[in-house]
Amino acid sequence: MVRTRIAPSPSGFLHIGTAKTALYNWLFARKNNGTFILRLEDTDAERTDEQYVHGMCEGFKWLGIDWDEGPPFGDVPEKGNYGPYRQSQRKELYQKMAYQLLEQGKAYKCFCSKESLESYKDETGNLYYPGFCRNLTPDQIIEKGNAPYVIRFRVPEGETIVNDLIQGTVYFKNSQYDDFIILRANGDPVFHLAVVVDDITMKITHVIRGDDHLTNTPRHIMLFNALGASLPHYAHHPLVHDEQGRKFSKRLHGANVLDWRDDGYLPEAIVNYVALLGWTSEEENREFFTLPDLIEHFSIERINKSAARFDRKKLEWLNGLHIRNLPVENLRERLLPILEKHGFNTSVKTKDWLSKLAQICQEKLPTLNRVVFLADFLFKDFDIYETEAEAKLWKSPETIIIYFKNIQDKLSTVSTWQHDLLKTVFENACTELNIKLGALVNPTRLALTGKSIGPGFFELMELLGKEKTIERLSRAIEYLQNKGGITRE
RNA sequence: GGCCCCUUCAUCUAGCGGUUUAGGAUGCAGGAUUCUCAGUCCUGUCACACGGGUUCGAAUCCCGUAGGGGCUACCA
After folding, report:
1. CATH node for A387-488
2. A17 CA to B9 C1' distance (Å)
3. Catalytic-residue membership of A250
4. Could you tell me the mean pLDDT of each successive run of 10 residues in chain A, 489 residues long?
5. How many other CB atoms are found less than 10 A from the CB of residue A132?
6. Which nucleotide in the DNA or RNA is closest to residue A45, CA to C1'?
7. Distance in angstroms (rounded) separating the CA atoms of residues A53 and A41
8. Choosing from A144, A173, A250, A380, which is the catalytic residue?
9. For A298 and B43, how far is CA from C1' in angstroms?
10. Domain at A327-369, CATH class
């Protein structure tokens, strides 16, 4: 039975890198009918904040990464039989294990204060615990009385081998690790102990995580061995870099997964893109994957060893692809909150009307938010015409006025306001005026929408409605007459 | 600094000793379609970090060099 986990520290929002790790763990579990566990590594009370806990869970939910076992979230109570799933609630367990190691002589009490150790560094200038308390006699320990102490792990001699599913076999000399602390003076566990104890007790079979943990893994393996537990399989994947090739800083927009939601990206696209950042399908040249597709094709063997840069442009392309892949009704529902957020009242429109809106915008949307630009004129009147377009399309106001009056007359007699019929009306007008369709459509688009670009013209006019169309034509004619007057002076 | 990992077009990558004039995608440039934009289709642009080996033969294996990243806390 495969059991994987994502173990974030709730000291910030859901980082894109954490999302990648979560996704890989989730995919691997789903692929193997295993269990995916969410565990919060909140042993550092200083840095933990409930709002981050909430943001992370919300982020996972948004991405579609659900957990089979994990702490309570919102209305959902704790799930799973290996809880609690917050390290802050498992302190006694860690202490028990630490003292077990202490009794077995695999760990020892260290009475050195942090300050007193500051001057001890290795040849290279790094702090390195010289082992002052490593061989204290029982009498010496009794002498210390109630002096505060930490528990340090007695790092054994020899070497530790990491057999990694992605990195291969990596050798580490134990001598490069000093006797690290496993239990702090205040009784809190340190990350390494907590991780190992949890992975043991939660019966984790596969630890998939960022390769920033690769050099921590020997410590973990030594602890597993000391605790007499068998090792999980390890898979260390490369980190996600920003567009400059550097570590994806938390301060950067986009580091927070929910930034993408706010920017109008689909969770499907984020998941697809992030999966591709360091993994390829065995199916060559395929890039479009839904979550079920990913479950079907995912394999650890095809994860790369080199770090990948984040590329917004490619994400945007993929996002457009996923938007176009959505059934129109689905797209409509996703567009509604965005429209509402911009103050457009969608409740006065029919479902059918809104579906048509989604349909005429669908192939033009790189992001959902773009709908605001493409369709704002359908919800509110505008006060200015796009300047450049006006200069280009309404170069000779007198002529345009003639066009507009002509088409306005014809439109006012149309009884079935439907795009195909409207097109015919325009075609007739063009024949009559002896101009090409574009020569009439483009200036009219500016009159109706205030812009030179937008959805298909006849479709847009259908949604605008007869009354608004006639009204905006009148407004444009009036505007052009005034303008013409000024130029004549 | 030490230890560990990485290095194919601008970017994500395929490639796992001969099938490679190194393939795909994004981007960029151009063309076609067209009521604008977009989409779609077509064409073009662009790479094996460097230096040594091994081999009949290397992007693929080995060793150096350079560059990038990670770890090096009573953070995780």
Report:
1. 1.10.10.350
2. 26
3. yes
4. 96 95 98 97 86 94 97 92 94 97 95 79 72 88 89 96 95 94 95 97 98 97 97 96 90 94 98 96 94 97 95 97 98 98 96 98 98 97 94 94 96 95 96 95 97 97 97 96 60
5. 14
6. B75
7. 10
8. A250
9. 34
10. mainly alpha
